[in-house]
Known about the structure:
It is a single chain. By secondary structure, this protein is α/β, with parallel strands linked by helices. It has 14 helices and 14 strands. The chain has helices spanning 2-30, 33-37, 70-76, 86-103, 117-128, 142-153, 171-181, 204-210, 259-265, 279-285, 301-317, 319-339, 367-378, 405-421; strands at 59-60, 109-114, 134-139, 157-162, 185-189, 191-192, 197-198, 214-218, 237-239, 252-257, 356-360, 380-381, 383-384, 393-397. Strands 2-10-9-8-5-3-4 form a seven-stranded mixed sheet, sandwiched between helices. Strand 6 and strand 7 (197-198) form a beta hairpin. The chain is globular and about 60 Å long. The protein starts with a helix and ends in a 6-residue tail after the last helix.
Amino acid sequence: MQRALICRGALLVQQVTLKSSLTTQISSVLVPRSYRAMSSLTVPAPASLLLPLKVPYRLMLGPGPSNVPPRILSAGGRPIIGHMHKEMFEIMDDIKKGIQYAFQTKNELTMAISGSGHAAMEAALYNAVERGETVLMGVNGIWGERAADISERMGADAKRIVKPPGECFTLQEIEQALSKHKPVLFFITHGESSTGIAHPLDGLGALCHKYNCLLLVDSVASLGGAPIYMDKQEIDILYSGSQKVLNAPPGTAPISFSERAKQKIFSRKTKPVSFYLDMGWLANYWGCDGKPRVYHHTGPVSGFFALRESLAILAEQGLENNWKHHQEMALYLHQGLEKLGLKLFVKDKNLRLPTVTTIAVPEGYDWRDITAYIMKNYSMEITGGLGPSVGMVLRVGLMGYNCTKANADLVLQALGDALQHCHKSKV
């Protein structure tokens, strides 16, 4: 019996050896001698790419992106289909309807830009504004300054009205600037994530139209978490992002245009400076012009799957329920922060953004020490300021899937812990 097993083992070894030998011989025959002698490659395969992908788990409680729930992750992992398949167009139609619901608009020209919120900002400006035209930018944080920068790059004359971080504009101040500069477009950020302001929008659309001016609103940080009514508030162009309250991965950006905005866009004297963001092409790709769809670009198929699912969740939960829930959780967090002795950066309670809370950096502390301590000990992201608010604030985001009492409690625990352990300057 033992001898039989040994013989059988020897036979297996011979077979394996023979196969290996034949494979080597075949490979030698198929691969030219010049390739065997010396590779023509001067850049080797990166050693890091030969290792498995490692991504740490982080609780994303900063201003975005937020954590993606399992249902949306699963939707994004569905098998790829063609970007011009009829099933893909049906999914895009669902996305369009979901955006119309989230924006509270009946605008036909509604879609998701293949890109981040910055791409939507550029799509709005590139299509609605031509070289040499005057635009007016409301700057009370980083996003108004970004919009002005983009406008100037495309040759527009960007005028600015400026407020310190944490403050907003009155209708009287805006009207004075509209009367003085006579812009074709006025930009304002609804949810200014760099400062924590939710800017009032009521009356602003009618005021802009009085001066024959389009109203462009950035709702990247507010959509789904704070009330906004595109049609009722007479907003001409509204855009957002996928990675905040909607909890989808970054890379798709809802946008919509009013009839007034459409008229200006489609009566341009010159082509938009970007082919990729040209609304003439994108309107067709998204089935907004009543014509058979033709190829423009390859849309982010998996990203559209995820965005469709996130909009489905918003529809199931109800927009008004979502607004109420975010407001309640923000108030709960604010009360807890004040009990810790921390001060909220935005003094007017009615102007505080429910989705992103800004906390004045406590005196004597370096904000970088606090955020680093929380990341190291809690695997949690909260961030410092951005743009004009750098060094002034800490930013906490409770958005969508992350907007829970348990997460608010964890933030309060982490901040209290950090204040005890981080070095406090005596100066």
